[in-house]
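Subgroup meeting minutes
Present: P.N., E.W., G.H.
Scribe: E.W.

1. P.N. recapped why we're keeping a running log of single-chain structure predictions: easier to compare across weeks, and new members can see raw inputs and outputs side by side.
2. G.H. added today's entry (353 aa).
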Amino acid sequence: MSTLHRYTLPVEQTEWKFDGQTETFFTWEYDEPRAALLALYDKGKKQQWDAAERIDWSLDLDPENPMEMDDRAIPIFGTEVWHKMTDQERRQVRHHLQANQISQFMHGEQGALIATAKIVQTVPDIDSKFYAATQVMDEARHVEAYSRLLHEKFELAYPITHGLKSLLENGLTDRRWDMTYLTMQILIEGLALAAFQRIRDQSKNQLAAAVNAYVMQDEARHVAFGRLALREYYPQLSQAERDEREEFVVDACWHMRDRFNQLEVWQRLGLPIEQCLEIVNNSDSMKLFRGRIFSRIVPTVKDIGLWGPRVQKAFLEMGAMEFASVNAEALLENDNKVADEFDAKMRVQTAAE
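Output recorded in log:
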């Protein structure tokens, strides 16, 4: 069934095409692969899963609060705007905010699908091509899972936001293979992991939590892939080349930080836009969220060697420097463990029925 009628704007108004620059790289060196990347490739093969089978799609979302998230996470909660709403209007806010977030996850995963296909084409070494090929399948599965969640359960979807669209375009139009890695594997995937984790750990709805837990298990490998490749490559660059990439990281992080204002939702629901934006910008919950969205990016950026004064100053101003000492590898291992725990919980529930 077509999903076009689910969107808050006609798809023909939001479809997106652009001419990307690509340099195809064939390699005839098959005999000197790197052990760490081959191990990740082997793990990627073994951890393939079927979204139609691993996820229990018989579970429903709560019509009052689809993912059963705490209302205190809503930026306008407790404000004059919120108090003036009826119960029905508050249900709409929950529904639309959550559908918009899952919609951006879905669009971001399609961006990752296209970017990873480009990595297969442009990366110069064979072991990276091998692993990226497994990630292409992962990203297709993620688009499938989020699309099904929106289409069958939310029955509502939002177009891609301008901020996400701009960031994707930067990564997909650059000819240099490492810039695709940096944009997708480090920045967008890192941001996504933090957003996914919030739902995985705080949602009381088993379906929503499980979808995000399983996607995170894959994404943890994807970020590890980017770390392995770039921390070997960036020391080979000149200082001027590293400076250019650090400037890109800073600009992209400020861009991502400032795009979380849910403008599309306030517009769609006919709420006072300027008042809502002001509330969002000054909301304690949003300030906390804006700091935490970089919890996965900061330690990884440090690990790959893009850690000059400009980058450190930006993360300090964003309130995210506390994550510089986080063990990125331990976080990724925990993502894998939590997904396995969801599987075990499902087996127990199935046995009890």
